[in-house]
Amino acid sequence: MLEIKPILRSLMRSKAGAAMLIFQIIITTAIVSNAAFIINDRMNYLSQETGYPEDEIFSFSVMTVGEVDNLSTLLEGTEQLIRDIPGVINANLINNVPVSGGGSASGFGSQPASERGPDTRAAYFTADENIFETLGVTISEGRNFRSDEVIVGSTMNDVPQVVIVSKGFADTHFPEGNGLGQTIYFGNAPMQIIGIVDKMKGPWLKDSAVDSVVVMPNARASMRQKFIVRTEADQRDIIMRDIESVLLEESNKRVVTYMRSMDAAKANYNASDILMVRMMTVIICVIVLVTALGIFGMTVFNISKRTKQIGTRRALGARKSAILRYFLVENTIICIVSAAASYASSLFLGEYMMSEFSLPALDNSYIVVTIVCVFAISLLSVLFPALKAANIAPSIATRSI
Amino acid sequence: MLSMKNISKVYQTEKVQTHALRDFNLEVAEGEFIAVTGPSGSGKTTFLNIAGMLEPHTGGQYMLDGIDVGKLSDNQTADLRNQKIGFIFQGFNLIPDLNLFENIEVPLRYAGIKSAERKRRIVECLEKVGLASRAKHLPQQLSGGQQQRVAIARALAGKPRFLLADEPTGNLDSLMARQVMELLESINEEGATIIMVTHDAELARRAPRNIQVVDGQLADFTLYQNKTIEAVANATAMEV
Asked: Which tens digit of pLDDT belongs to each residue from A154-200?
């Protein structure tokens, strides 16, 4: 005996309290479902594998000051000096550091830029044949650069004739899977794909094309040159501590800056997202708590307002379980009425977030799960006061309150 | 039908022990109409609560229709209350959010009576109290006398053997009080046993049997012979 009809009619006759609860449940569901979706989206992004041995890699910049006869020769010497440090696996000059949040990207087309054909956006790194060992990635198809294919210099005027691309780029640009050996164009300059790396990330983990990477064999030296170094994992911190003095010993016309391990750089890049995830988690907890307290408070208020009525019901033959059921059914009706509006409001908020903040479309399953969770939480919130109500003595019916 | 032997009720707080009823003995036969009077705080309402199983007694034995009420579980007590007893309260105790039909329906739902039968009984009871045309009205749309008639209809709907009335006319003016009393008398004439707590000596005198509660004990009784019932005589003889 669920008394659905009388409860429903009773709710209809005193709408204010029920309407407030319904409104609160709608707002809670809309915010929690969207926040949970965003958190999950961010968590997926934060937990993505980079493919790099992050705990073995670090990078730094060398700013050369004063007149230098041949910068390329100087920096190549430095590169070799670093490789010779015990515990270093490899080191390389590089234009930008992967997963650091700063880098270069361009469109790479199947035709020269002048012919305006379709292109695929990719982050690009310029380095020599040592870069793959330095980054700890392997070429799964094709081959590495030969040293004679590497262009040494300090400008981008000479464009290399070969490139190695990530599988992400190859699969996007050549969906048939026949990227190896094909020619792509960097501007109007043709470059043949001689190798494909299975997994490689660009500088920006948030980028939708984060797996799309092109590596060009260009040992480009600059007055502010980035180096990337891979060491034995247990040696990295020691080498990071000592490397500056080694470099200054070689030449004192330089300043070593931006020394950062790859995992620290990644953490720094992700810091705002981690903060956002934490904040949203707190918001979800607070809003769910507020809703639970609201339902709890409203039920306690309803019960204190209806003490005599509950006593009368008990006097008329209601078992304790009937009183408990009354409040649980009342709450269930409120939740069911809220569900449709909650679903619509969650979708609306999701659409708004998508259009205003370029977030992905809200998955319906998040709304459904949130509605179920809010329902469970509201039932739990009602349970304690309802149990208290069930224990109201029937003799209250004859007392003056 | 109703037998109370040496019933006591003690309310215990941290520091104070209050004996609301002590050595309370009463036998009620089927079809009686008993008025219970006594000064405020004498234990009338406690007696009514125990008779109606609204609260447990502390000592003694209470038998209702041969059932030892003291040995029942909470659920069994609720069921027995629902099946055998109809309550009429001083403040009517109608549920304000429910209309008259729904108010009368409340105990019938707890009794598990089917919808069609519920409807039949509610209509019948509303007709009996003269409010059939106002079934969809809310309690607050009625006068005090009308509300008490609805409460009587609610008490009657479950076809109880006992009607317990706690100051049923306490909130009514004299004209309405008389109407309600006449209604109770007619219900008693149809066979229901009624125990009515009242402060109103005039109304009490209209009941065939009158008992008085003083300091938690049955102090005195007077049998008004204008509506003699043999069973009453037997019962009162036992009390003497």
From this structure: 566 678 999 999 999 999 999 998 899 999 999 889 999 999 999 99
d(CA A11, CA A23): 15
SS3 A395: helix
Find the length of chain A.
Answer: 401
User: Sign of torsion, CA A146 A149 A155 A159?
Assistant: negative
Q: Distances from the Cα of A35 to the Cαs of A22, A38, B207, in angstroms?
A: 20, 5, 71
Residues B42-53 have pLDDT tens digits of 999 999 999 999
Tally Cβ neighbours within 10 Å of residue B225. Answer: 10
Q: Does A319 touch chain B (CB under 8 A)?
A: yes
Q: Using CA atoms, how far apart are residues B90 and B45, in angstroms rounded to an integer? A: 11
Q: Which residues in chain B are contacts of A395 at CB distance < 8 A?
A: 49, 54-55
Identity of the residue in A308, A315, A320 whose CB atom sits nearest the CB atom of B74 = A320
Q: Which of A8, A9, A310, A312 should be substituted to probe chain B, the one whose Cβ sees the most B Cβ atoms within 10 Å? A: A312
CA A301 remoteness from chain centre: 43
Phi and psi at B36, nearest 5°, equal -110, 120
The C-alpha atoms of residue A199 and residue A215 are separated, in whole angstroms, by 13
pLDDT in tens, B66-75: 999 999 999 9
* Tally of residues, chain B: 240
